[in-house]
Automatic annotation (TrEMBL):
Its cofactor is Zn(2+). The gene is pepN. It comes from the Bacteria. SUPFAM superfamilies: Leukotriene A4 hydrolase N-terminal domain, Metalloproteases ('zincins'), catalytic domain. Residues 34-191 form the Aminopeptidase N-like N-terminal domain. It catalyses: Release of an N-terminal amino acid, Xaa-|-Yaa- from a peptide, amide or arylamide. Xaa is preferably Ala, but may be most amino acids including Pro (slow action). When a terminal hydrophobic residue is followed by a prolyl residue, the two may be released as an intact Xaa-Pro dipeptide. This is Aminopeptidase N. It is an enzyme of class 3 (hydrolase). Pfam families: ERAP1_C, Peptidase_M1, Peptidase_M1_N. It comes from Ornithinimicrobium cryptoxanthini.
Amino acid sequence: MTAEMNLTHAECAERARTISLRSQRVELDLSGAPDPAQRTFRAVSTVTFGATTDETWIDIVADSVIAATLNGTPLDVSTYDGARLVIAGLEAENELRVEADCVYSVTGEGLHRFTDPEDDNTYLYTHFEPTDSRRLYPVFEQPDLKAEFTFVVTAPQDWEILSGQPEVGRTTADGCATVTFAPTPPLSSYITAVAAGPYHRVESTWSVERADGSRQEIPLTVLCRRTMVPHFDADDVLTVTHQGLDFFDRHFGFPYPWGKYDQIFVPEYNIGAMENPGLVTFTEQYLHRGTSTRAQRQGRASTVMHEMAHMWFGDLVTMRWWDGLWLKESFADLMGYHVTSAATQYADGWVRFAADRKQFAYRQDQLPSTHPIVAVIDDVEAAQQNFDGITYAKGAAALKQLMAYVGQEPFFAGSRDYFARHAFGNTEVGDLMECLERASGRDLETWSQAWLETAGISELTPVPEVGADGHLTRLVIEQDARDPLRDDAPVERPHRLVLGLYRLKDEVLTRTRTIELDVTGARTEVPQAVGEAVDLILVNDDDLTYAKVRFDKVSLRHALEHTTTISEPLSRAIVWSSLWNATRDAVLPVGDYVRGALAQLSSETHPALAATVLTTLTTAIEDYTPVADRDAARSDLVRTATTSLAAAESGSDLQIVWARALVRATASCRDGVAAVRGLLDGTAVPEGLRVDQELRWAALAALTAQDDTTEEELAAELAQDATMGGRTAHVRASSGRPGADAKARVWEAMTTDTSLTNDRLRAMVAGFTEPASSHDRQGYAEAYLDSLTSWWSGRTIVMATVLARGLFPRGDLASGQGPEEHEVLVRVEQWLRDHESAPAALRRIVIEEADGLLRALRAQAAA
Ligand SMILES: [Zn+2]
């Protein structure tokens, strides 16, 4: 990025004050897309707007701006700087026409072009959030300048040609169709969308007859590229879509406003999905090439609901500026889990939320870069870095707590009021709170201040006092709540929560009592618990609030030994999550966590929970365990995975989870090599396990990390799976080969080959950083730090972020060394001092990654 790529809040606010956008016509000529030699396409924007200023600028990131006219008079385009074109001589009402040659993207930003190596078909799709619509067409790139957009797209006539609105006109010439789409309702540019290519489509219709006699019918389409059709689970996606529209129609009280609902699964996508109204884009990774577990399908359902919630929250009502990103993301994230749990077959969605999604928030909230949910975002580079665990998961957890606090019905009533008042407009946080206050009749000022405007996590610890008869004589919940951004000043954070009391009987932990209560200050007495006999006290059972939950000594011992005997998966998720938080904080020695998890995991019956705990175990062993103990822990993990795989029920999800775990563990432990070989060559495959292509590639990646494959073997596998997925998996596997020369080759490719696609670069980074070859990477810390600023200026923000995050050096503590003395951290400190004026977004990445390393070293020191 050049400096001009950034856009500040101040200048955009000024532009919004002086410009009134009316409508925008966007004409795109994509007829040359199938020819890889054509780098660019022609884009023409015609914008009508009122102005109270003489001069402004329009955003366009293009190869070149060909011509521009303002009110019929040609403008000087020689001042175009690669990101902005100055528009001078404005009148009260204006028509601006700008013509540019824009570039097909390989990084997933702007208009991405993908050619399928299997059948040579070309596919296009767009992704803009936060500020890449300017890579497709000249535009006022900010969410509060909404326009009625009319898209006109020329592309090969046998292609699907799609935008957010339905097609209303079509002409054909020279093998190409020019399709005109209906004008959009007022819309922010970051959620406009175009897709084109020979996509495969499956159709359905959703309809409703409401109690008031009104009717609505919405055409539904799901699409994917042709070679993915065998893996296209269209029925499941459509079923979930119907269930979601039923739910939102009933609860949001505002008819679906975008006419049609297309959902398209696209390759080489940088994120999970994007809520473009009428044309939602999803990563193709949601179409599972291998056997999918129920948890994977549940994850997809949750994303479908998340994006659907955005049709109202975000698309219909949009944040004024990126500091309100959380407004739409927290709400959509909450709805993703709520509606999946309430309206689909995936009713245990909250287990995933507690075990998995909230870890995203806990992790982020303890970084030096933590921020309140309502964040200050000065520019779009900062916005780009703020699609984080606080904006999504902590915000969702806070709203879940708010739902518990005001009640579910008032929460939805407030939302209905919000949609009705602000439809097609832009809002700030206060607008939502006002609606929720009106609906609930409660003053939310204090709640909002404590939850939305402070940073950090409350720590809740039960302090039991037990009499001679073993029964509680007193129970207090201590809250340690501070704001790390205000010198750790205490915060009064109110929690509505459920306390679970458990007894151990016949080696089984059984919940004998639940107490719902409000925890507000530093100490909350729980008189209801007096007289109870308890073996485990679980604060925040049912997961209503957002907090780090600690255990008293007795509870901790039982948690480490008997968690899997608790019947409710949601309660187990909270125990596992608490144990992991304590390990991350070096409060619980990592060895205790690893031993406790390994001893219990083979009896964890919830596949998604088992998979989550296995992921934490990998981090615990590879990053937090002292290097002297690591090989033993790796062997233990391989042994547990081997026996658990053998014991898993034939054809079950647990069998898949354990097979994947065994393969993954083998990448850093030779003990598993023979078993993984047996899976691969078919000589030792447990009955009912399908060793599909994905598992084969994972196995080959693990064996390559152990230097137990040849290049010929990998090439032979590629020959039998010459798909895009196969190619990426081949790159992933071969990049993991140990040896200084192999690492040097991968480093060279990652850092110099700018033609690499986003997916290929990510595959190389994953292979390069295999734990098994850490000794071959020792020398790269310096090269990493020396390269950071040139990556940032020379690559797009997505690609620079992949490199800056993915290649951050890791390290282990030498004996007697203090964590802060580690040479990587010392060098990073020096880099930060030497680069005080480096872009804030880049510094944020380096600071966060360094903190991750420091946390790992502290855990090693505390082991
Ligand atoms: Zn979202």
